[in-house]
Amino acid sequence: MKQKLPTNNGGFKAIGFGKTDERMYSKLTTEHPIDLCRYQVANGYMGRVGLINSGGESHGQSDFHDAVVTAVVNKRAGGIGLISGRKAFQKPMKEGVDLLHLIQDVYLDESITIA
Question: Cα separation of 56 and 71, whole Å?
Fold first, then answer.
């Protein structure tokens, strides 16, 4: 399942979908990105459907930093990967390959574990 990395707490309430209890957004989670991403994993049948977050659009100078942050949040929350199309492929070949290697290094690094 592909999802955009969550940036706010409010999900279904914000779009008026489903019946939710206010405590879901006040007592059962925090504003921390890893907690918000965990809800995405939980919504994928408690992780049985793997979560791959979208890396988002390219912002130029901050792309390497943004990609690492997104990959670490996804991995620590229980996700399984990151889509990095525009960030990697709208750059010169060497920079794009370096960015992809950086993302791979996050997922290969055994010291980055589930939070």
Answer: 12
Rounded-to-integer distance, Cα 62 and Cα 15, Å? 30
pTM: 0.82
Question: How many CB atoms sit inside 10 A of residue 2's CB?
Answer: 10
Give yes or no: 13 in active site: no
Q: Which of 56, 24, 60, 54 is nearest to 42 (CA)?
A: 24
pLDDT surpassing 70 at residue 102: yes
Q: Which amino acid is at 40?
A: Q
Distance from C-alpha of 73 to C-alpha of 88, rounded to nearest angstrom: 19
Quote the CA–CA distance of 49 and 9 in Å, as a whole number.
Answer: 22
Q: Which residues of 83-96 are buried (b: 16+ CB within 10 A; e: fewer)?
A: bbeebbeebeeeeb
In angstroms, the CA 50 to CA 2 distance is 9
> What value does the mean pLDDT take over residues 33-57?
87
Name the active-site residue from 2, 75, 87, 91.
2
